[in-house]
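User: Show me a protein chain along with its predicted structure.
Assistant: Here is one chain, sequence first, then structure tokens.
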Amino acid sequence: MSKLATLLAGFAAFAVTAASAATAAPWSSSVPFTNTVVSSPVTGGGYPVPPGATRPEPGTCGPQQLNSNHSESWLAVKPGTEDIVGVSKFFVGKWSTFYNFHLGSYTIQNGAAVATNQVQGYECTTVGTQAMPPSWTNNTDPNADFDTKGRVYQTTLPFNAFWAGGMHPNGEIHVSYSDDLGRHWIQANGGVALDNTNNQNSVTLGHVDDKQWIAVNHLVGNVNQDHVYAMWTTFNGSNGNGKIMVAVSRDRGATFSKAVQLSTPSATTPGNTYVYPSIGPEGTVYVAFISGFDLNKNKVGHVYVTKSTDDGRTWTPFVIAASPIENPNGSFANTNFRDGILENFAASPSHPGHAYLVYENWNPAAGTSDVYLTQTEDGGFTWSAPQQVNDDANTASSDQFQPSVAANGDAVAVAFYDRRAACPNDSSILPAHRGAANTCIAVSLQAYRDIGSVNGAQPVGSNVNVSTYRWDPDQPGQKVDGISQYPCAGHNDPCPRGRGFIGDYFGLAVSGGNIYALSVTTHYPQNTDGTDVYYQQQVLATVPRSGFGL
């Protein structure tokens, strides 16, 4: 049996559905749910990092195994169905610690991953050349959304390793789409980048693109049906100077309009990023983004919201929806991973003018993080007083972070990473962490009902746990061939303190029948060269709406 076949056979034992309906402290209630591991080893392409090196070398791209960590994810549900396309980072080979990854996707039908593959078109094995570009060392920041005809889109950020001695060009913004639930991907806009940085690189602090997202109008009969809105941040100069850029396709991805700047420093601050577009039921395009955190010592910034009622051509004045306090440490106590993106945003697809913003907020006195929700019922002009979402008994003793929000019909869901429960005593937890408080992670879910009234979304019950197993974010702690398998954003082995990477966000969606969350777990070992390695895998939580009466 080949090494890949052995890996697949070993991993398949864990790619099964688990169910739980039991109430377990410290969550006061529960609902039925299932967990299914959807990630698995797959053949792809990319750049190896030879022993002793910490970076890829030009001209060495070739077939690779994408069989290690799978961090950071998003998902989209095909409208009117329970079919899902999930996307995440796939780390290349055993080089997770050097931040070497490409985008991959999961075709999920009937709750099971029926296909897993690297997103094609960004490395040598699918573009047929070593030239850089169109072959890139990395591709990143998963996101996805469907149109009404079953085409799923994502904005992509292919880039060359900026830590590899000034390798450039730094990167580009592209859009890819799939007509077969993520099995095969085609570059939109005729393969032409929406933004091109071929003469810049991060080392010289020039023009750098990052943090892109997508939204698609999947409202049947709407005048802007199937229009695709791609957005990203362009950074310039040593102070960041982030500007939100927007490009629109009105022909299902065949072409995109020239990118235009949405945000203006005079109206917000120069530091704008983490953009989230979303479509309201009348076709209004809403946008939320963070501004100002990196430009002030107090780590207090603003989340701005704007909207367009003319297909992204003009935008309303920016409104401050929330002013979170950022985690000043950049990482959390007791563990080595860095914090991620503070906020997430969704417009109601059913109730005009209703939209929901969730964010993590730092409690300076306690030194922990909590999750808050604010909402609008008047199209973003005014926002409700923030409500704390996590309901753990002692909010000052544990961290809740990286919230996501999604809506469908009257159902609104908020999910977040939660460290309220102590680490279990099992082999997937590092020995030093077994029984430890505020260390291991589960996914908590809070359901809401919004009937379209001026009262907005109201909570349904309490927080529920939708993770069958809590997991250790400092896994994998194992080595293969003397190389750490721990994913690191610091490009060094061992990984510097606070530079571990579990992803900056995770996916949440609401269908007609279920609430879905796609997130990281390290519970399931993978046999690699005879060693059980607790790689980050992607686990799909399926929670029937009926459990909440939704």
